[in-house]
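Hey team,

Filing this mostly as a record. A colleague (T.K.) asked me to run one chain through the structure pipeline before their review meeting, and I want the input and output archived in the tracker in case anyone asks later how it was produced. No errors, nothing strange. Just documentation.

Input sequence:
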Amino acid sequence: MKPDLIRFFTFAAIMATWSYVSIFARSLEIPDTEIGFIIAFYSVALFLSSFVFGRASDKYGRKLFLLVGLVLSGVAFFLQIFVQDFLGLLMIRVLVGFCLGMYPSSLVAYVHEKKEDLSKFSSFGSLGWAFGSFVAGSLAVYFSVRSIFVFSSLLFLLAFLMASTMSFGGHSSIDIPKFPIKIMRKNLPLYMSILIRQSGAQMVWTFWPLFLQEELHADLFWVGAIMMVNSITQFLFMYTLTGRIKYVTSVIAGLVLSGVTFFSFTLATNHWEIIPTQILIGVSWSLVYVGGLRYLMDRNIEKATVSGLFDSVLSLSSVVGPFMATFVIAFGGYRTTMYLASILAFVSSLWFVFSKQSK
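Output structure:
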């Protein structure tokens, strides 16, 4: 249960802040293009950190990187309250990204090694997203966006205290190359499919809060509440169903449903109409994420390494997506990113099916 609570606290902290970073940046009079760069460079730091510390966890053990990553993340999140301009926000978000990449692969590997249910473990991340979205919306309305950073920092402190009481036992070191090409090639069908799908998704999420505010007329509370619908759906679906579905089928179904869902975003004309689509996106991501994680854990002995690479792929998509969004937004609009995300999701499903068959 302790790993589940750690995942809950950390995902709540991450989601609470993520939901309002672009709105906070806009309050500092930072333009859309620079907001895109901030999100992209944050993701670069997360990508590099996940890549390095996943391998390090397999080599040196889980406990060190889990504890250090959690405490440094708490400090980095708190420092966001002092930001006053573009350069300050850019530097702090890069620091946050680096710290956040240190611990997740260690935690996932720990859960698998303890023979715990990865589907239920993953579901607590989604529950944390829901909780973080709800509290963040309330804090933004009744206090300020800066208060969200303090709240997130405190959640990381709770996660650190919880992790410090866990029993890790001995660790068998696994010798892994600094650049694990064979591992990457072995799992390329999944990694590339996730990269394509998530690059499209991150295009949408880069300006999602602004889309909800400016085109669907959602206030600060409803920005958080809409995201909470997505998160609650993920929690319920991951906890009850995804573990029962074969992981290859789960990934394919999730990718196809993602394509349908991103297109459905474009049909909404107000914030009430977007709510049903959040149920669909919650189901689709649950299928992709849990199916992908089980695919990697069952097929590889380098648990933290493949999990770290999985996180790195997600982070890389968070680099590619915002850069693409910054370009697309200059020539189209928020809805244009959704059309393109839909196309990319369908392409990713085809890639997974045909590249897996060729192996």
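Quick notes for T.K.: DSSP finds 15 helices and no strands in the chain. Residues 2-165+181-357 form a domain with the Growth Hormone; Chain: A; fold (CATH 1.20.1250.20).
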